[in-house]
Amino acid sequence: MILSPTGIKEGPSVPTQVYRSCLARVRRVGSDCLRRFNGMFAFAIWNQRANCLFLARDRIGEKPLYYYQDSDRLIFASEIKAILADPVVPRRLNPRAWPIFFVLVTPSPRRQSTSGSYKLLPGHYLIARDAQVQTSRYWEVGDEPQLPLGSILTEAEYAERILLLLDDSVRRRNGR
């Protein structure tokens, strides 16, 4: 989706109200809106006025978001093969990533097997402005955005909250 002075340019697969709601929250509170989003997502918003790109990934990382950066460009996609389709992107193996792969039998969460490409980590966002890229964490396991800072619950209260969140999650997925 593209945020421009004249409005929003939308893609074909997501309802307009979802775009508008997401953009309204980003406009209102910036990256703090991510703490209130619930579900799977990876998205990009280009703010033409500020000449700024905002990328974000869901808390657990169910939706992938890769990016490649060099001195001239930033390329992003939901699959690494889309980035590698650009002939400018080098197809060099990243020797730093392979030891982690062989020990953990999974790719490094940060380093990709190809040089210059990265995966935006779960619970993180990226801001690109004036050829500068900055990633920041907005959530990690243990964060609970619905509770006031410093709140302490009993085990039974946590169990009740988990059941309520699970019920809410099922309700949302079923469209009720």
Overview of the molecule:
This protein has 4 helices and 9 strands; from the N terminus they run ββαββββααβββα. The protein is an alpha+beta fold and 176 residues long. It has 2 domains: 149 residues, Glutamine Phosphoribosylpyrophosphate, subunit 1, domain 1 (4-Layer Sandwich), CATH 3.60.20.10; 26 residues. A 6-stranded mixed β-sheet has the order 2-1-3-4-8-9, with helices on one face. Strands 6-5-7 form a 3-stranded antiparallel β-sheet.
Which helices and strands, and how do they pair?
Layout: E1 2-4, E2 7-9, H1 16-29, E3 42-47, E4 52-57, E5 66-69, E6 74-77, H2 80-84, H3 98-104, E7 117-119, E8 124-129, E9 132-137, H4 155-174
Parallel strand pairs: 1-3
Antiparallel strand pairs: 1-2, 3-4, 4-8, 5-6, 5-7, 8-9
List descriptors.
about 180 residues, alpha+beta, 9 strands, Glutamine Phosphoribosylpyrophosphate, subunit 1, domain 1, 4 helices, 6-stranded mixed sheet, 3-stranded antiparallel sheet
Short summary:
The chain has 4 helices and 9 strands, in the order E-E-H-E-E-E-E-H-H-E-E-E-H. It is an alpha+beta fold.
Please report the total strand number as a whole number. 9
The CATH architecture name of the largest domain reads 4-Layer Sandwich
Order of strands in the sheet with most strands: 2-1-3-4-8-9
- Helix coverage percent: 25-40%
Computed over alpha carbons, the radius of gyration is 19 Å
Main beta-sheet annotation: 6 strands, mixed
CATH topology of the largest domain: Glutamine Phosphoribosylpyrophosphate, subunit 1, domain 1
Point out poorly predicted stretches.
Answer: 1-8
Structural class, judged by helices and strands? alpha+beta
N/C terminus separation? 27 Å
